[in-house]
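re: that chain from earlier
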Amino acid sequence: MTKPYLLIPFLFFASLLSAQTQAVQVTHYGNCDSRIISQVDSIKKLYAADGFLLLKEAAITMESEYELPVIVPLNEGSWYQFVFIGEYTSRLYEVRMYDWNERMVVFQQKRWGDVDGNVISYAYQPKFSEFHMIKPVQVNKEKKKNLCGYVMMFKKTGNTN
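^ sequence. v structure.
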């Protein structure tokens, strides 16, 4: 006999995975220009020097004004650093992070005029080991499709160079 209460979390997780409506680039830097690639390389070096290990990274093709859900497993008590880099020509950048209970645990917004406007970086230490969903979005008035987005997830290892 099946237990219907066990099916509900599975269906929820499956729906989260199928909610991804935008394509994720398989190539390393996707359609990102050299300025963004240079930012990615600099950020990797900076966090490596601070004792962070790069766990995941992806160049993603985004559409203006549409969130791109990224689901990541996080461990209780670990210290993570998340980075989102958007196109230079976009006017607004946002990242929201939700825990398994769909509570928003992080919200950051940057605008084109900000000093580091196209980069959103934040630290997070989960209270429980569970999946979290990160939803980056950027708004671009000129270019509606094929926007470059780059996401990175680091974990603190305690080792510094």
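The radius of gyration is 16 Å.
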